[in-house]
Design brief:
Blueprint: E1 8-11, H1 13-17, H2 27-39, E2 44-49, H3 62-68, E3 75-79, H4 83-91, E4 96-102, H5 105-112, H6 116-121, H7 123-132, E5 137-142, H8 155-168, E6 172-177, H9 184-197, E7 202-207, H10 214-223, E8 228-231, H11 251-260, H12 269-283, H13 291-294
Parallel strand pairs: 1-2, 1-8, 2-3, 3-4, 4-5, 5-6, 6-7, 7-8
Bound molecules: zinc ion (ZN).
Residues 12, 16, 206, 208, 237-238, 248 line the site of zinc ion.
């Protein structure tokens, strides 16, 4: 058992979080958030996505953010929807590219307007570009625990998609509960299935809280051996193509739970709460995160 082993928390607020915000967050504010997150101990950022400005206007400054973001000690991971985005991200010095596809045909069509096999067909060129620029590639699988259009998604479908990514050289697979359909028992089963069939592949969980049990799902994942999690400052974000999507798990809530259990996250919770409040100020609305309101146990406030 690798109990109490240090875990990796990937901060996705700047990409998954901001992409669904209506008001544009300035490049200056994005850079201020990156600095503050680094100060709180965040080392892995999903910094932006090189996606069309028309599709996601909030991330239209991806190149500027990447050009000016601090580098020391920060690993900038960048989501890329296609070859064009991959080229731009590699040119911008991304530390890792993130490609994605849905395990459900219906969701893939809703999300990116094409079939799973058409999405997969573009992967070869992205992986060879990444190899030339020596940029690692990780892959995310959307609707890995269920699809709002199609219903249940068999774990064999999820594994089949994962194998296609691993075969091409993906160094990590993220299982995303895009619509908050997972339950802890299902997470345990899915993770066990992956550990049995793809034992050498790093696994990450990305959990949405549509039905209020994402933290229980994260804990089930932790018990099943997952040591990499995606979370979002203040709990912002969620998938824009899912009806009434709720947010990601709040980074500071997750850090609070894990640190309370004696698990080392490498983060400074008090500093993280301050960054969540900075984000709340920038977005000018209350954020879903809970610990930023209640405070850590020590503070009494
Ligand atoms: Zn998310």
């Amino acid at each position: 058992m690798e109990d109490k082993q240090k875990i990796i928390i990937r901060e996705v607020a700047l990409r998954d979080g901001l992409q669904s915000e209506k008001a544009f967050v300035s490049t200056e504010n994005k850079l201020a958030l990156i600095d503050a997150l680094a100060g709180a101990g965040v080392k892995y950022l999903e910094t932006t996505s090189f996606v069309s400005a028309r599709a996601v206007p909030q991330l239209r400054d991806a190149a500027k953010v990447m050009a000016r973001a601090r580098r020391g000690g920060i690993w900038h991971e960048v989501m890329v929807p296609n070859l064009k985005g991959a080229r731009a991200a590699a040119d911008a010095g991304a530390d890792r590219l993130i490609v994605f596809v849905s395990a459900s045909e219906a969701h893939n069509r809703a999300n990116v307007g094409r079939s799973i096999s058409d999405s997969m067909a573009e992967l070869d060129s992205i992986f060879s570009l990444a190899e030339q620029s020596r940029t690692p590639v990780a892959a995310a699988i959307a609707t890995a625990f269920g699809c709002p259009y199609q219903g249940p998604v068999p774990v064999s479908d999820v594994l089949a998609v994962a194998r296609q990514f691993v075969m091409r050289g993906a160094d990590r697979i993220t299982l995303a509960d895009t619509t908050g359909m997972a339950n802890p028992g299902q997470v345990t089963e899915t993770v066990s299935h992956f550990k049995e069939h793809l034992p050498d592949t790093a696994l990450c969980l990305h959990l949405h809280n549509n039905r209020g049990i994402a933290m229980a799902n994260l804990y089930a994942g932790y018990l099943a051996g997952i040591r990499i999690f995606d979370t979002s400052l203040g709990g912002i974000g969620g998938c824009p193509n899912v009806p009434q999507a709720a947010g990601n798990l709040a980074t500071e809530d997750t850090v609070f739970m894990l640190e309370s259990m004696g698990v080392d996250t490498g983060m400074d919770l008090a500093a993280l709460i301050e960054v969540a409040r900075l984000l709340e100020k920038i977005l000018a609305r209350p954020l879903p995160g809970q610990v930023m309101k209640s405070g850590p146990l020590e503070s009494g406030g």
